[in-house]
Amino acid sequence: MIKDIFRKKQIGQILIESESSKNSLNKILTLRDLTFFGIAAIIGAGIFSTIGRASFNGGPAVSLLFVFTAIACVFTALSYAQFASTVPVSGSAYTYAYVSFGELFAWIIGWALILEYAVSNMVVAISWSEYFVSMLQNVFHVHFPRYLAIDHGTAKTAFEQVTNAVAAGTTSSLPSNTFELAKIYEIAPMIGDLKIIFNLPAGIITTLVTALIYIGIKESKNATNILVYIKMGVILLVIVGGVFYVKTDNWVPFAPNGMNGVMLSVASVFFAFIGFDSISTTAEECVDPQRDLPRAMIYCLVICTILYIVISLVLTGMVSYKELGVNDPLAYVFEKLEINWMAGIISVSAVIAITSALLAYQLGQPRIWMVMSRDGLLPKKFSSVHPKYKTPAFATIITGLLVGIPSLFMNMQFFIDLTSVGTFFAFILVCAGILFMDYKGLSKESKFKVPYLNGKYIIGTLFILAAVWVQYSFGFDTLLAEKPLLGVFWSAWLILSILGFKYNFSIIPVLGILTNLYLMSELGWTNWRMFLIWLAIGMVIYISYGHKNSKLNLPKL
């Protein structure tokens, strides 16, 4: 079994299977469509909320953080692009790992991607609900029942906190939002002893988006393109309109909290860029995937980076960075300047932006399941394609249920703790896969290649310089005591330095590995624990079902 779990699929074999599959998909996506899918996934709630918190911590200098983060994403995007041009099927990092590291790693990545796409969409659906209810109230003056737009656990916890605080006479220590949530729980209707509290808008939007994706890729493409045109227009309107209210005095000091303040937001800013990888899940529906997938990944990253940088500069120029620690910074700055009509437009566009992000991620999940099912690692039903709509029908329905039902009843923080680590893990393996392809000579089959820069001496030199700087500035003992997970990062860097010297590793994939591993090590132990539990569940499924049903299963001698 040990030998079997590391068996690999050949690139030629994968291409033949995808082309000869009875369950073929419609090939209609062009370069523009792919680029728009990437923009839809990347520009979601991030530009309407994350950018404010980042500016609050780092001041105007956060614009530089977007540049640094974009460069870090490019390392990973280039690796994805090479794989996408070499293996143009819908499995994304799952298929890439199958070619590079074997079946076990492919399963782990596929299982991690389920976590990334499904759980991320639960967060997006809950976020959409918040913006939607706010839009109804502030723009259309419609008061949606709040007990139908929040999860039961959050409301009940707030009620218990207020009740205990009242009994102890310490209500002044509670934030105002807690009292609002407690009130919602108190006035919610009941059936017997059960309070009727659930997030109806989150469930509805998930159902509608799933239905659209089920009907067809053409309809999903058209909806995505329209939504992206609208939100891009609104963002440009914000930039053009906001420029006239910029006061350069607000940019001084440029980095009020120093680099520490800027780096406080590195993880959240990084997540504002995640989404380019979702493009690779549509490979089998592309007209020319080997040419267009790499281009689309780079184009969407460049476009989104420019928008993020300009928006951050405009926001911090319109008002002081100290005022941007809010959930809706774009609307806030225009309300602050009493341009209420613009604030209303932004509220509506936030709902549109998050809808397009939900659509992009909800589109990717079923296609990964479809490819895993083709390989025998999941039941055959997951690879069934609708005879009329040419979409992975069963997998799409299951994805809708998997996202929609939990988003009705669970809170956002629970899902946030489940995400992140799996995403970084997938990115690391994709970058490592490029090193493997170079070593085995498989890169010769790639129509797009990561630019090769010999890291034989560079990787080790950078390691020594970084280690000396850390020891001199902080001391490794102090640093690792505060953040023990950084030990994994430094150990990996040392190993890559040795292997890079021996095998002449390309520096770009190595920088991708190190960047993602550093950010991964910055996450809390809660994220790691939840991810390890998720992997353990996945391993049970693989051992009990996937291994013996794999199409690569070797006959027992």
TrEMBL record:
InterPro entries: AA/rel_permease1, CAT_C
Chain segments annotated as transmembrane: 34-56, 62-81, 196-217, 226-246, 258-276, 296-321, 341-364, 391-409, 415-436, 457-474, 494-519, 531-547
Subcellular location: Membrane
Keywords assigned: Membrane, Transmembrane, Transmembrane helix, Transport
Boundaries of every Cationic amino acid transporter C-terminal domain copy: 507-550
Species: Lacihabitans lacunae
Membrane topology: Multi-pass membrane protein
Identification of the protein by name: APC family permease
